[in-house]
Amino acid sequence: MANSINGAVHNFNNVLDNRKQFLEEVGVDINNTICMWVTHGNEIVEADMKLSGVSMLDYQKAVKVDGLFTNKKGIYLFLLIADCLPIIIYDPDKNVVALIHAGWKGVDLEIAKNAVYSLLKRYASDPKDLIVGIGPCVYKESYIKNTPSQIDDPRWRNYLKLVQKNIYCIDLVGFTKKQFIECGVLRKNIFESGINTAKNNNFFSHIRDMRFPLDKQGRFACVVGLK
Length: 227
Hints:
Layout: H1 2-25, E1 33-35, E2 45-46, H2 54-57, E3 67-70, E4 76-81, E5 85-91, E6 96-102, H3 104-108, H4 111-123, E7 131-134, E8 144-146, E9 160-164, E10 167-170, H5 172-182, E11 190-192, E12 220-225
Parallel strand pairs: 1-4, 2-3, 7-11
Antiparallel strand pairs: 3-6, 4-12, 5-6, 5-7, 8-10, 9-10
């Protein structure tokens, strides 16, 4: 047991070193950064400045949500991810930024719409002003599931493609973009990296590393804030 605990501490020290190095390279202080612990839901909350730093240094104190937003300058939002959609939303009129984790469950729960409505409710954001960026994630040609649970859901009709008996490609990116457009975000204001994490070795991928246990799989970081 002692070896296991010491090993865990040692491993997290390595994680902290990696986080600090990454943040230093992009000019961000870890003590001004708030870390999310994703729950695969659709809850989005305003970032609590009191969790700056502590949520990065102690994973148990990370914010258990799938989205954070803030209008405070100098506060940075931090997300660890692999294959799910890291989404940044920026309102240049209200000067507000949000960071969203959209996985299979979150996309189905329409977290993109919830994010827009949260900004509308909190800051009176106009969806037409919002700029959306979808980062590296799994694309439909690499996201294959056997008889997905949404197969009979009409919302998903154009985003599930049968490739062989009971096997479907799932277009998380397409369905997410549809949600943004339906709540008023302009199509021209939605940008995507086009990077498929399941194929690009520059990014960690749960699909690519599925042969390993979860605690042996890597995650890459997405960080955003207002200067």
